[in-house]
Amino acid sequence: xxxxxxxxxxxxxxxxxxxxxxxxxxxxxxxxxxxxxxxxxxxxxxxxxxxxxxxxxxxxxxxxxxxxxxxxxxxxxxxxxxxxxxxxxxxxxxxxxxxxxxxxxxxxxxxxxx
Amino acid sequence: xxxxxxxxxxxxxxxxxxxxxxxxxxxxxxxxxxxxxxxxxxxxxxxxxxxxxxxxxxxxxxxxxxxxxxxxxxxxxxxxxxxxxxxxxxxxxxxxxxxxxxxxxxxxxxx
Lengths: 114, 111
What we know:
Chain A is mainly beta. Chain A has no helices and eleven strands. Chain A has one domain: Sandwich (Immunoglobulin-like). Chain B has one domain: Immunoglobulin-like. Chains A and B meet through strand 5, strand 9 and strand 10 of A and strand 3 and strand 4 of B.
């Protein structure tokens, strides 16, 4: 079974703090993704990565950065957390090619910024 | 990017067949159609994927007409455990396109 794990289920941070969300997958997948999910807005793609050290912006990259130094790990960084970044953050991974449409998601991290 | 339109919500009863239609008028030649299911407090789960005609797996069927401007996810004989949000996605993950989840269809199954 593919396993995607996220470092925390719940996180509370203060405005202005630097926040790191970690994601690890154990299936040697090439692709990794970070989404945020908000009520009424569905899932929105923040960043994705097709390979180590490769990253591409999604639909809402502002205020976020990412790091992929190893194939199995994809980190989302909030440089200076703001209250409008309070959300559920979901990490996913998938194989390359047409198999990449099947993304495997982690359990999510519910981040609250106060 | 191909935009998708789905009903916001649907209701059904146990044992019925449920069909959720997704509209994607500007689908591109290389785009695939993918459906996901999401339960509360969980990440989405892949259900089925297709390019044209009909695809069937152990969970659902996906019907895609020749013009590919829409698709229909068919869930046979739903149960209470099928209550979830269903997302239709259109895109070509191999290119610069991305999979767009949208807001999905909330299916409520009643006993």
